[in-house]
Amino acid sequence: MSSLENDAAYATDMTLVLGAESYILKQKQRLSPADPLGKDCLQTFVDLFLNTERMYFTLPGTQDEGTPILIQRLGSHLSKFSKSAIHLSEETEQKVFEGFTTLIESNDKELLHILGGWLNFQMLNPIVTKGHRYRVHAKGERLIPDDSYQIWADKREQLLQGKQTLLRSSLVNSARKLAHEIDEYAQIERNRFDSLEEFLVCYFFDNYRRGCHPELCVKKSLPQEEGSRE
User: Fold this and answer.
1) What tens digit of pLDDT does each residue of 139-159 get?
2) How many domains does the chain have?
3) Exposure string over 52-76, b if 16+ CB within 10 A, otherwise e
4) 74 and 162: one domain?
5) Which of 130, 157, 159, 202 is the 20 to 30 Å CA partner of 167?
6) Are 64 and 209 in contact (CB under 8 A)?
7) Distance between CA 155 and CA 160 in Å, rounded?
8) Is the omega angle on the peptide bond into residue 60 within 30 degrees of 0, that is, cis?
9) Residue 217: is its pLDDT beyond 70?
10) Mean pLDDT score across all residues of the chain
């Protein structure tokens, strides 16, 4: 999510919305698995919705079978822009990357536990698996958008060096329990990665980048028109 217009408006990615929705559905319908950070996502979503003059959200694609109920019900009260309408500045990209590397180098055990739950949510929850590839790619042929992948390609060695061994091990250990689901989900990305491990670290980075904490984000430019593409 990112601050716009001197904090009078905020833009949020589907990452936040899907996490918030998973918490609501978990409570109401006892669906499993849910995003382990879903409660925090819901609190943030409600805070932004109630306390900002305008709240922007990414416009779902026409083939998106997993459009969040929150967007369906509240969409008329939100301002829409296409997923390509806002671009991060170089300064923001650097802050996001530094924040991510700091996070994964911490080897925080609580984080690693949460990460296992987050991976379950991503791979087993229909509100993610049915629509994610259409949210990040017009033809539904990618799970990781090209801008995030390019950063990965440029800085791959930094993200796979020895300091991140614990994180990578945690991802791979969690992935073993979901081997079939991940294999089915990730098959459209196989040609861009040498291993499942690389895909998972890049997938985690992309989710972090698009749903980063607001303290890591600096101002972005609003789209020229709502829903327009730049």
Assistant:
1) 888 999 888 999 989 988 887
2) 2
3) bebbbbbbbbeebebbbebbeeeee
4) no
5) 130
6) no
7) 9
8) no
9) no
10) 75
| Angstrom distances, CA of residue 30 to CA of 21, 33, 35, 40, 125 | 12, 9, 13, 18, 13
Among the ranges given (132-141, 183-192, 219-228), the one the predictor scored with the smallest mean pLDDT: 219-228
Residues 82 and 98 in one domain: no
CA distance readout (Å), 222 to 3, 37, 92, 114, 139: 10, 28, 15, 33, 25
Name the pTM for this structure. 0.75
Q: Where are the alpha helices (DSSP H) in 79-108?
A: 90-105
Residue 203 domain boundaries: 90-210
Q: How do 54-58 and 79-81 pair as beta strands? A: parallel
Residues across the chain: 230
* Whether residue 6 is found in the same domain as residue 104: no
